[in-house]
Amino acid sequence: MRISKIDNNFESKNVNRTTNATLNNTNYIDKSGLLMAHLNNISAINNISFTGKKYELGLSHDELVERTSKERFGSIELLSYYSPEFQKLEDGDRLALKHLVKAANIIGKINMQLDDVNNIPFKKYLEKEIAKGNEDAVLTKKLFDGQKGAFSQDMEFNHISLIKGMTQSKGKGVYPRDLSVEEFHSILESMIHDGEIEEVRKMLNQRTVVVRDGDKLKGIDYIDYFKKDFSKVADELEKAAKYSTNQDFNEFLLYQAEALRTADPMLDAYADKKWAELQDTPLEFTITRENYDDKFTETIFDNDKLLSLLANHGITPIAKDFLGARVGIINKEGTDFILGSKDLLPELAKLMPYTDEYEQVINKDNKQTMVDVDLVTVTGNVGEYRGKITLAENLPNSDKLSLKIGGGRRNVYHRQMRLHKNDVNNPYQELLIPEQQSMFDPNSYHYFTIFHENGHSLGPKEGNEKLGQYRNIIEENKADMAAIAFTDKLMEMGVYTKEERDALLVNFALQNYLKAKPDAHVAHRVRQVMQAKYFEDNDVVNITKDGQIYVDIEKVIPTAYKMLEEIIRIQIDGDYKAAERYVNKNFVWTDNMEYIAQELRKNSKMLNATVKTPLADYLAKQ
User: Fold this and answer.
1) Is 136 exposed, middle or buried (0-12, 13-18, 19+ CB in 10 A)?
2) Is 374 helix (H, G, I), strand (E, B) or coil?
3) What local confidence, expressed as pLDDT, does residue 430 receive?
């Protein structure tokens, strides 16, 4: 699960906030579109794209100049060749990194196609235009590389399309682009009535790409769909295992390589189980699989008839996984600091609401590893800067098989992302009343992040999958509230001083306020609006008559625990309708939120950013 994203709030003054015209939405289709869809389906196994489109740039010259300007377009720089973290590695590990970077780059290519079928062809179009001297293509490519695709939202939730006349379909690249929600549901019903239960079950799991099959649909496991590319990733991992100096890490790489050659969820489970055991290794490599971005599968939960039909056959729809890759070097000092929280988890688990009603996510053996990582590269879903970037992850998620065969979980913290966030001026500080303006500790967000990630390991092990489109929102909401509700207990345990405790609570209360209202499907941002609303309703955050923010510090913790109780009740019951009511009640953009958003936009201007990877770029050429 992805923790809080870096979302430095920035003003978009004089920037076009309108979305490009939707000429190719999920309900639009013509004969050429049908032909292209058919060609794409019959070529799926060979991973060939027949988009047949003639592209044009989606943003004007003025908007491209504005969006790529220094004040609007930031950057996060990862390790370089001369970084001491790389230079002090043993020769074998330095050689292994080369192959891990190459593997990660291929994963990035695969996920770009899962994101949208147009991404790779459009990228090639940009490269050709750049070769012709098209300056606008150069600027467009900067944005494309930052967001790792043609479609994105910026830090103020404006939808950006780099392709003229096109928007991203709801089904992204994991469903046919011309498939509407209505047709999708109709085909599923028809296939169930025709007895094609196992094919429907295959379509609605997290690891298939769905394609047309005549007047029906079929699911192709992504290992088979991208067979050539995954085989190349496996080759690179096996090469890395020949050089890496750590036997446990090498064993994991070989498990992971095997899982990329054969479409078998159990092979993934073995690799995940081994990965989650890694603690004392020099290097970090992860293929992340998270299903936050698929909102198409989750439309089924709004169709009571279809949902009931599926339930009668024991089928629970699960959103599709999108893929990312992380390559890094373990930072021992940072890891030792983070590991200090591990032994606290069993005690925190006892403090969770309704503990006698469910099995905890964290098992009795406390199978949880934690590492702080100096990053070499992040690709695919992990590296997309779409108004945000991943600060840390707690994986595998609860839908993964490895947890069912006795595997544990692993927290990985992204050191360069954290340092970048600390370097950015805090736009909230001057909005506070003078007495609270000094309550800013650069470590506050890191402390919060650690216990947010630990919060994912607390609470009910089962039930989330039944919450459909609200599953991720509520899970992220739970992790936030768990991180805050036990702050006094953590202070009692010696984790925080009183000053650090107060700074953490003030920072958290303010970080829930955004620069603009987000879309209802952005889980991390929706939960922040919900929390801001809940805290306002409980008089935790108030605006003074002078327009300054006052945080009632002593109300933060009891309010967080009260919200945590409501969340856990919903997760225990697995009640989709209750989850819907809970989110709708709290996802309300208030006058206070709009006022603070306007103030934040005055204080910060960045709209997007990119991740620079000098060491990875060097290694990829070797």
Assistant:
1) middle
2) strand
3) 85
Residue 461 DSSP class: S
Strand partners, 371: 412
How far from 577 is each of 302, 465, 536, CA to CA, in Å? 9, 13, 24
Q: What are the b/e assignments for 225-258, b being 16+ CB within 10 Å?
A: bbbebbebbbbbbbbbbebbbbeebbebbbbbbb
471, pLDDT greater than 60:
yes
Helix (H) or strand (E) holding 73: strand 73-77
- Please give the backbone phi and psi of residue 460, each rounded to the nearest 5 degrees, phi first: -65, 135
350's CB contacts (< 8 A; 6+ apart) are none
HSE-CB at 394 with a 13 A cutoff on CA atoms is 25
pLDDT digits (tens, 9 = 90+) for 304-351: 999 999 999 999 999 999 999 999 999 999 999 999 888 898 899 999
Q: What is the pTM of this model?
A: 0.85
Given this model, what pLDDT does residue 570 score?
95
- DSSP code of residue 280: S
Q: Which residue has the higher pLDDT, 564 or 12?
A: 564
Which spans in 326-470 are helix H?
A: 332-339, 345-350, 415-423, 444-455
Any idea which of 66-70, 384-388, 536-540 has the lowest mean pLDDT?
384-388
Phi, psi of 182 (to 5 degrees): -60, -45
User: Could you tell me if 157 and 525 are in contact, meaning their C-beta atoms sit under 8 angstroms apart?
Assistant: yes
The DSSP secondary-structure symbol of 262 reads: S
Long-range contacts of 186-189 (CB under 8 A, 24+ apart): 187/215, 187/216, 187/217, 188/217, 188/300, 188/306, 188/310, 189/305, 189/306, 189/309
Is 80 exceeded by the pLDDT of residue 369?
A: yes
What string of DSSP letters covers 134-196?
-HHHHHHHHHHHHHTSSEEE-TT--EEESBTT----TTTTTS-TT--HHHHHHHHHHHHHTT-
Which is higher by pLDDT, 259 or 608?
Answer: 259
Contact status, residue 526 vs residue 388, Cβ threshold 8 Å: no
User: What span, in angstroms and rounded, lies between the C-alpha atoms of 377 and 101?
Assistant: 7
What are the boundaries of each domain within the chain? 428-603
- Is the distance from CB of 318 to CB of 471 less than 8 angstroms? no
Exposed/middle/buried for residue 77 (C-beta within 10 Å: 0-12, 13-18, 19+): middle
Tell me if the bond preceding 396 is cis, omega within 30° of 0: yes
How sure is the predictor about 7, in pLDDT bands with cuts at 50, 70 and 90? very low
C-alpha neighbours within 13 Å on the C-beta side of residue 155: 31
Cα–Cα separations (whole angstroms), residue 42 to 39, 218, 225, 401? 5, 12, 11, 30
Residue 39 has pLDDT above 60, yes or no: no
Q: Which DSSP symbol is given to 483? A: H
CA-to-CA distance for 458 and 351, rounded, in angstroms?
Answer: 10
Of 405, 338, 334, 390, whose CA–CA distance to 369 is shortest?
A: 338
φ and ψ at 373, to 5 degrees? -125, 130
Distance, C-alpha 551 to centroid of its chain = 29
Distance CA 176, CA 189 (A): 18
